[in-house]
Design brief:
Layout lengths: L4 H4 L9 H4 L10 H24 L4 H14 L3 H9 L1 H12 L13 H11 L1 E3 L2 E3 L1 H7 L3 H28 L1 H24 L5 H7 L15 H8 L3 H7 L11 H13 L4 H20 L5 H28 L21
Antiparallel strand pairs: 1-2
Length: 342
Amino acid sequence: MPTDASSTGRSKVAAPPAAEAGARTKGGRVPRVLARWRWISLIAFSLQLLITALTMGLRSEHLLMAAIFIGLAWLPSRIGMLSWRALPLGLAGLAYDYSRFLTPLRGRIHVADLYHAELRWFGIETLGGRLTLPEYFARHTVVLLDLICGLAYMTYIFELVLLALYFGIKEPRRMARLGWGFFVIGVLGIATYLLYPAAPPWYVMRYGLGPAQLSAPPSAAGTARFDALLGISYFRGFYARNPNVFGAMPSLHVGYPMLCFFAVRDKGRGWAISTLLFALLVAFSALYLQHHYVLDVLVGAGYAWLADALVAAIMRRGAARAPRPAPAPATAPSAPEAPPRS
């Protein structure tokens, strides 16, 4: 049983916030935030599945996401809190999925101007004339690079999810930084897709620099070679579900790994180097597989820095405003005992 502070001479420790108390709760008691979230997640994701079924049709990933969030919430507190802490990841996924309904609001689609800017700033001279890097790589493919870049492009999102799950148990505050950074960069990306819709390199190579062809279907581009190597159709199916062909700027394929780097770079050299190297590999893959220009990559990396800096600043401000435990009142020294009378 805990002893009262007055009897021990030590100050009481302030109780942790409810959202973080769940990881420390013992004796089977469910923290208040998780008890509420269990029912909220059940109702909210059931409604989301119903709305999705009526508007765009249910896909396996919709059911999987709902099952994960609802299922985790009803597990014991230490694991169940992951469902609550992963909320920004779910919100970002839903925002991207439903952004397809905003497509009619997008501005003029940029095809030739982006291409010429890329060619001027990052083009390379070849015997056949000046080319963008994606054009050059399309003419100089290597089987080993097809495999390595395809794997990087396949696993870019898994890095973020695995880090979020790890920090959700080990460092909940860092998971919050990573999760809300993921949400912010997703919103920035969607806004840019609407304000500056841009054609990817594979589109220019296939349809040219004329007016945008709105009926152009999505394409796996260079990742189709990865599918052919392994005899699978992963990327063909992945890009068939792409709600926006003209969403090359920015590259969120690069933004997400860079966000992981910014979120863990202060944990030590190993964390920083490994996450940065993977982000650079994904950046190269975006060019090699003809999905993005260098400009798209740079803006994606910049958005990652901005999202992480914004979330980190908000979290620091919130921590500074959080009430601090009041110091325990000083106890008066006890009076010396009187000597016995003779």
